[in-house]
Design brief:
eight-stranded parallel β-barrel; 307 residues; alpha/beta; TIM Barrel; Immunoglobulin-like; disordered N terminus
Amino acid sequence: MMLVTDSLDRIEVFFGEANNAEARVYARLEFTKAPGDCRLAGRVIGPTCEYAHTLSAAIPLIMKRLPANAITAQPPALLAEAVVPDPCFWSAELPFLYRVEVELHRGTELLAKTQRLFGIRPLGAVRRRLVFEAKPWVPRGMNLGGVPQAPLSEWRAADLAMVVECPSETLCGDASRLGALVVAEIVGSPPVLESEVQRLSRWPAVVIAVLNSTTPLDAGIRTKARNLLLAQSFGPGTAIEPAAWADVSICEGGDAADLSRRAVSCRIPVIARRPAAWRDDLVQARGECDLLQRELAGTGDFAGYFV
């Protein structure tokens, strides 16, 4: 048998149905040939939080048998599930994290093992709104290069998302632990973008990935971006015509009337973005997001504001 990877480095860990009573957490590994008696096992351990004390529990990962139609509809895979009772959701205020330990067995032999930090973050797009835990969520964001360097604690205190081009694993991990929001901007070919969104979807701090492709993207990229919102950016004066894979449109421009005119007919949430300029600190950047919101109030239906 030949697995896609000789280890579990590329395993997907994600959540499915999640509510206050329980959350379903999955570990998934694709393979290229029939896995024989291989199976996934492990446990979900936690939660832990930088700002709160909690009681930790260990919930086992149990192998699931996929129906034949599920195997033929997408690459075949091993899949294990853990049902986490009374889940603690990840948020900037309380960034609860779980540790997911995954093992690959063949019969009684342990072939590989790995672990991931993981957060359950019920974020989504409903019609023209963004929602978090079924409540409206209006993100404000600032380009990392547009302000002096500041610790993640100050981004969190300003309630400001950090817009970063291809954020590193270290930044994503620290932001997930400390409760700082990250909006990732990615440029490249479809294979590069697929690899990047799969990497970024591991981290609960990364709430939106803005994809800028050198060629059109297939709607299948959604399968690589579990639990992550995908955004498409439209420059000043450009008509907003979102692709099938996009959850969010980002409308760039400086004039309120132009922003509103272009966004009015968009079927998905639109984030208004003013062209980047240097800001002296995060407080000023947050103030300009609020100013942009006031300028657009009553002229359009916007889901967020970036500067």
